[in-house]
Design brief:
With about 725 residues, the protein is mainly β.
Length: about 725
């Protein structure tokens, strides 16, 4: 026990608001003058009520720092409340209903440890920093506009309070309940530039650096009023639209709370600047813009107390167009089909310097960004590569005076679109079955120019080249789909241009019954199937390559056949195994070198293994490594002159090891030698045509083990 401690009678405990007769367990209260340091706690809400959070364990009395079990005496209910110790040593003290800090935020509690030593604690829960009214000072206090800065600072009651022991987390919200958005800065004051109109509440969390305890102050009302900045001034004319060389009158139109003695005006073609000053100052001024364009305004006002505020318009308020149509087009409407040219003329008022140079630009917006147009003369020809509506800009440079004048159109001057009228097709409409051809003709002038053709499934591309050049071609699409057309013109000392269709002009569908089978029903494994191509392609130079696959995307395997011409339009195919198969034929025109592929949309070949193509004796063929098995197939040779080869493998795809050959579709395999489950491949070899048909079992047929010894019966 600490020597400075003194034991108090129960009557003194009663003075603390506890009944002497209710003092539980006869606890000995230990009060030490050296241990009466006021502790800081945060009042928190929990599922069962409120708790006191003692965040700084270093400030606890020594006995409580090491105590394994702590309880709290909080009221006259004769109840000891368990205190929770967190992993970091901090304590959580539950408060019963009705037990709350006094008006100054103080509360007194008695804690006891497992040794029944008790400690009297005075706990502060009030704000770390007491603030005046208003708790946060805002400058300027009146409404501001987006782009303006507002100064925020705490307003403590003690003006000389040392704030170095704290840091501050600032945030704002459109409502008193949040959600809260953090502001940058951790000092007791900062500046903030709101980006959106609205009325904003402020919140400051004061955090003690050493103990990390914190308290939060939220403004009871919205303190920052950000007004709509679409118009910070009135203009005469009210539309703000003038011609180059005219005056426009500007009059400040700021919030009523703004009082100013001096006004400073500036302008820019972008709301983010840079801003150039206007020479005149005052609440109302006359301004003569020197360049065409659309301008944002910025107004800086200075009050009598020396403070200033800056306001920037969120919309362009002044639109200056060229005098006497400084930029002209031929055709005057500026309406083009993509691929056509427009003549641009600089008709700048006044005397033009003889050595002047010109630079041309275009943009989708009067504010830019602008992209260059080829040509540095007063008049240029332009073939836009993109569709859309474009503003124009020309810059004239005088090398003698070294001055540049810029003229920008205030309205759209060139409009570019795609058109189907640039093309003629036969048949029309061009609805094709894959394999058919369409005649395509360019209806635009192309004299002495090279014409290249392309197609794409979307107007944005990517575009793929079509074989052939010239103003008219024949095209047989290799793929099904809907296609846009493009003709690119080059040569004859003219800029490259391109015409693109506005819609998909060519539609290609897969043909039905492009590949036919006979019979058109399932067949037994080992039998043949006749395949016939029924494509729209015609000609004596067509060659067909046949293949099959288990999916419409492949992979594709060559179709084995005994037909005299395996590249004929119709062949006899022997499926190499059982299953369901898609069919494919690649058609090559030997004369033109073109190639098209046709794939069945569904499985066309159905091969069953019932009755079984392969037979074994014994059945099942479970033999030992020194045993033997007889292998037989149901293959019927279509003509004399066939011999047969047999092989085995652990996988249906090989590699296969030879068993031997036979003159009949039967063989005895003796002494396999190695244990395993084996697939069997049967090759029927036509010694007249020198072709081979291969048939592979879909499942293992021979099961060889070390533990069995079977002999041929």
């Amino acid at each position: 026990m600490n020597v400075a401690a003194r034991f108090l009678p129960v009557s003194l405990i009663c003075l603390l608001g506890l009944s002497a007769c209710d003092t539980p367990l006869g606890l000995t209260a230990q009060f030490s003058a050296a241990r009466q340091t006021t502790l800081r706690a945060t009042l928190q809400a929990s599922a069962s009520g409120q708790v006191l959070a003692l965040a700084d364990p270093s400030a606890l009395p020594e006995g409580l720092k090491q105590a394994r079990e702590i309880k709290a005496l909080l009221d006259n209910s004769n109840t000891l409340y368990p205190v929770t110790r967190n992993a970091d040593g901090s304590l959580l003290i539950p408060l019963p209903a009705g037990r709350i800090p006094d008006s100054s935020g103080r509360i007194e509690v008695i804690l006891t440890d497992e040794n029944r030593q008790t400690y009297f604690l005075k706990i502060e829960t009030g704000p770390l920093l007491r603030l005046s009214d208003p708790g946060i000072q805002v400058s300027p206090a009146q409404g501001i506009l987006p782009g303006s800065r507002v100064a925020l600072s705490l307003n403590p009651i003690e003006k000389t309070a040392d704030l170095s022991a704290y840091y501050f987390n600032w945030s704002y919200a459109a409502g008193a309940q949040g959600p809260w958005v953090a502001l940058s800065g951790s000092d007791s004051s900062l500046t903030w530039e709101p980006s959106q109109p609205g009325n904003y509440y402020l919140r400051v969390e004061t955090v003690e650096k050493q103990s990390k305890t914190s308290t939060i102050y939220t403004s009871p009302v919205a303190l920052v009023n950000v007004l709509d900045s679409r118009r910070i001034a009135e203009t005469i004319p009210a539309s703000g639209a003038i011609r180059l060389g005219q005056l426009i009158q500007l009059k400040a139109a700021l919030p009523d709370a703004v009082t100013a003695q001096r006004y400073r005006w500036s302008y820019s073609q972008s709301p983010v600047g840079p801003f150039s000053p206007i020479s005149d100052e005052g609440e109302r001024i006359d301004w003569e813009p020197k360049l065409s364009g659309a301008y944002y305004l910025r107004l800086q006002v200075f009050s009598a107390d020396g403070t200033s505020a800056t306001y920037t318009s969120s919309d362009s308020m002044v639109q200056v167009s060229e005098a006497d149509d400084a930029i002209q087009t031929e055709p005057a409407s500026g309406a083009l089909i993509r691929g056509e040219e427009v003549l641009l003329k600089a008709s700048i008022p006044g005397e033009l310097p003889a050595q002047a140079s010109y630079r041309w630009f275009y943009s989708n917006s009067a504010q830019g960004p602008f992209s260059p147009i080829n040509g540095e003369t007063q008049n240029v020809r332009w073939s836009p590569e993109q569709t859309g509506e474009f503003y124009l800009r020309v810059r004239m440079y005088d090398p003698q005076s070294q001055q540049e004048r810029t003229f920008t159109s205030s309205k759209v001057q060139v409009s570019v679109r795609d058109s189907d009228d640039s093309f003629a097709l036969s048949p029309q409409p061009a609805s094709l079955i894959r394999g058919q051809a369409v005649q395509i003709q360019l209806k635009r002038p192309a004299t002495n120019r090279s014409v290249s053709w392309l197609y794409a499934s979307t107007p944005q591309g990517p575009f793929t080249s079509i074989a052939g050049q010239g103003p008219e071609i024949s095209w047989s699409p290799a793929l099904a789909g809907s296609f846009y057309l493009r003709a690119e013109l080059s040569g004859n000392n003219q800029p490259k241009s391109a015409y693109t269709s506005a819609t998909a002009l060519v539609t290609v569908a897969e043909g039905s019954n492009v590949i036919q089978t006979e019979p058109n029903h399932s067949i037994g494994f080992g039998n043949s199937l006749t395949l016939t191509a029924n494509t729209p392609l015609k000609g004596a130079d067509l060659r067909y390559t046949w293949s099959y696959g288990v999916t419409p995307a492949g992979p594709w395997l060559p179709a084995q056949s005994l037909s005299e011409d395996p590249q004929a339009r119709s062949i006899v195919w022997y499926p190499p195994q059982s299953g369901s198969f898609y069919l494919k034929t690649d058609v090559v025109d030997a004369a033109s070198g073109t190639r098209q592929s046709f794939v069945s949309s569904t499985s066309l070949a159905f091969v069953t293994d019932n009755p079984a193509f392969f037979q074994t004796s014994p059945a099942p063929a479970a033999i030992g490594t020194q045993g033997a098995v007889t292998l037989t197939t149901r293959f019927t040779a279509p003509s004399p002159g066939f011999i047969y080869a047999w092989s085995y493998s652990l996988a249906p795809t090989g590699p296969f090891t030879a068993i031997g050959g036979s003159l009949q579709p039967q063989i005895t395999w003796k002494q396999p030698g190695l244990a395993g489950n084996y697939y069997i491949k049967f090759d029927a070899i036509d010694t007249v045509l020198h072709r081979t048909l291969s048939f592979t079992s879909s499942n293992p047929l021979v099961f060889v083990s070390e533990s069995q010894t079977s002999t041929l019966r």
